[in-house]
Amino acid sequence: MTTIQELFYEINNHLLEDQQPSAYLNEISKTKLFEVYPFNMLDKLKKTEQSLKHHPEGNVWNHTMLVIDEAAKVKDISKDKKVFMWAALLHDIGKPDTTMIRKGRITSYDHDKLGAELSVRFLSELTDDTAFVKKVSTLVRWHMQILFVVNNLPFADIKGMKKSIDINEVALFGFCDRMGRTHAEHDKEEENIKKFLEKCK
C-alpha cells in the first residue's frame, strides 16, 4: 500500500519530469489515496466551483490541472522548478474554504493568504524541508498580485511582495495561472505580465 510520503515523491517526480503532469494527477485523484489527509485538501478542489465568466473550464481542480501543464512548459526558466511546480499544484488550495456567493457572484476573497497557510500544513505532512515549504507558500501567497497590480486594486502590495519574493518568479507563475483556463489569450496575458513588471519597478 502506498504511503502518503511515497505518494508525495511520486507526484514530485511527475511534476518535474512530465510534459503534462495533469495526466498522472487526474488518474491518482480518482483513488482512495485522495480521501486521506492531506491529499483530501486537493480533493476538495473538485467540489469547488468558480465563476464561468473567468473560469470557463469549471471547478478549481480543472483550472489547477491546466495551470500545472502550463507551468511544466516553463519550469526550467524558474529559479527553483520544484518550488514552482508545487506552487502550481497548491496555488488555489485556499479556494474551497473562501469560496462563496456574494450578490449572485462566486468569489474567493483572500484565498491567496489562506492558501499560503494551507500549503504549509499540506507540505509539512510530507516533508521536513522547511525551506522548500516556505518558498512554496510564499509563491502561493503572492500569486494574485498580477491581477491586483495590473488593475490597480486595493489588494496590491508591491512593497510587501518585493520584500518576500523575486517578482520575476511571480510574473512567470502568474502567466501560467492566467493561461491555465479555457480560451486564454496568450498575447493579452503576455501584455498583462509586462504591465505588472513595469508597475513593480
> How many β-strands, per DSSP?
2
CATH classification class: Mainly Alpha
| Largest sheet entry | 2 strands, antiparallel
Order of helices and strands: HHHHHHEEHHHHHH
What's the Cα radius of gyration?
16 Å
Strand order of the largest sheet: 1-2
Count of structural domains: 1
| CATH fold label | Hypothetical protein af1432
Percentage of residues in DSSP E strands: under 5%
- Secondary structural class: mainly alpha
Tertiary shape:
globular
Number of helices: 12
Uncertain segments are none
Task: Name the average pLDDT.
Answer: 96
**Architecture, CATH level 2?**
Orthogonal Bundle
Separation of the first and last Cα atoms: 51 Å
Helix content: 55-70%
Topology of helices and strands:
Elements: H1 4-17, H2 22-28, H3 40-43, H4 60-74, H5 81-90, H6 95-98, E1 100-102, E2 105-107, H7 111-124, H8 130-142, H9 145-150, H10 158-164, H11 167-179, H12 186-200
Antiparallel strand pairs: 1-2
Helix pairs in contact: 4-5, 4-11, 5-8, 7-8, 11-12
Keywords: Nucleotide-binding
Domain HD: 60-144
InterPro entries: HD/PDEase_dom (IPR003607), HD_domain (IPR006674), HDIG_dom (IPR006675), tRNA_CCA-adding_enzyme (IPR050124)
Short structural description:
With 201 residues, this protein is an all-alpha fold. Helices cover 61% and strands 3% of the residues. The protein has helices spanning 4-17, 22-28, 40-43, 60-74, 81-90, 95-98, 111-124, 130-142, 145-150, 158-164, 167-179, 186-200, and strands at 100-102, 105-107.
